[in-house]
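Could you help me review a protein record that somebody else here produced? This is what I was given.
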Amino acid sequence: MSAVPNLRIDVLTSPDRVSEFWAWLTRPGRAYVAVDLETTGLDWWNPGFRIRLAQFGDSAGGWAIPFEGWPALVAGALQWCSEHRVKIVFHNGIGFDALAFRSAGIELDWSILEDTMVWAAVSGFADQDRMLKNLAMREFGPWAGAGDRLLKTGMKNAGWTWADVPLDWKPYPLYGVVDTCITAGLWEAWEPRRKRWAGDHALEVATSRIVNNMQWNGVATDGAYLWDQISAHEDREAEIQAQLKALGITNPAQNGQLEVLLKKDGFPLEEKTASGKAKLDKDVLEHIDHPAAKLVQAYRWNHRVLGTYLRPIFEGSGAVLERGTLHPNIKPIEAKTGRMSVENPPMQQLPSDDPVVRRAIIGRTDEEVVLSSDFGQIELRLWGSINGDQALIDTIKTADEIGGDFFVEVGKAVYGEPDFKKADPRRRQLKSTIYAKLFAGGIETAAGQAGVNVYSLVPTWKLLEQTYPSLQDLGTKLIETRKGPDGDEHVVTSPWGREFKVKDPTERRKLGNYVTQGSAAITLKKALVSLDAAGFGPHMMLPVHDEILMSVSKAEAEEAKAEVAACMDAIIDAEQWGIAVTAEPGIGANWAEAH
């Protein structure tokens, strides 16, 4: 398909042509059909959401079917694929299109679904843009993106949106069918990849099915609580703004006025941004003893909680003062590491110590409570296992055996002080340094998180590297450099068998983090599959980083808690990995209580 193909594009415009479409779909020997949708938007849960076009295609051509006139035909085509075990191939369709179909009353057979975006992610393109047109242009040439440019230019010039672009405007169905054709082309071209990475693809499809059910059922929210918190945060914001205005700062969202005031009062502000301006982020402001710095920090956090979480959750739940239902957008394989993300709102960015937003998430009924189960210290444990750092593994095991604090045990080992206590201020330095290294950060990052200057952190930084070899080499011994289609690739393979790679040699230091995060992502996905098989699928509400939220019966909560822990604890074989990764489940009336 590398040369410009002579695609046959058909649009179903009358009943007379139904037999042509059906003959095309059911031709002998068909192994797959690529499917795509054009819709009024992305809010599939909204009562006004509609499917506008359904496209079916292969590498030679395809059909566009106006959905409102032919929903039974579309449903019948998908049912025929299920009965005859013909693969349905999407590009990012198992995430969105499956929910769009479901909103129209059409349930897909997940056992025959494939997705080229998933194939791209698991088979070598995780570090690149995985948008369909970009993948197709990389594989087949510039022609694969021509229809996209034509469509978007025409829509912009005419002022059309996806909800009202005319169905009979030729570029619209042409664009949709070409999408299925290039999806089909990728699926065919990647047959060797599909054979090698079939297991990874199957895990991602199973995860998407489970996550789709979570999105469909939604997250239960406390509308009255949200309303009260919105009012309180609005009042607090007005109060902080008044105090800042008295200091001469009328725009706390910008740094200019704050910079002038701080310099006037004798603060040198030596750290600079890339553009040369004074750096005034959270890490910097925390160390400035000035009322304006404290107030600006308070304003920014209050403003973020209000605008990023409280208002969107309330509005997204129907703006009701009783129990509401939120349908966040969960992307199962968003990051290059395979980590999931949650949008509308971005729950994975919620600080772990936040109680305000978490209290808004409640059980789905008055007879249910929230069960939250988190993999404890999974990144640290997998890092030690993957890097074979026995000293680090032994320290973790010691903390586990005595039920103690891991960073206290690190302090004993690093400083040679058997009486090292949790209250020791150096514990914060140890913690910030270890996690900075795990997340590919530098000493400046660690110092900022520890609240000390770089020079005072250097002894701890060096002692940790001497005590735990993996914190010095950062996984470089695991990296394989090999020839790729575009030059050298630097690759690390996780114990689960998935590869993580970079092309830029200066990015090699990030691979230790990628393989750790990637292995943690796979661990969580395997846990979701296990929990779903155990019957917890209808109860699951949200996956957040290494945590799973559920709504379970009050009467069965303790039993569910034990069963969830057993399912999650079994994912990592302690004998095989050299260390246990266990769940820490909790129960409460809301997420904050259960967390």
About this structure: The CA atoms of residues 249 and 260 lie 10 Å apart.
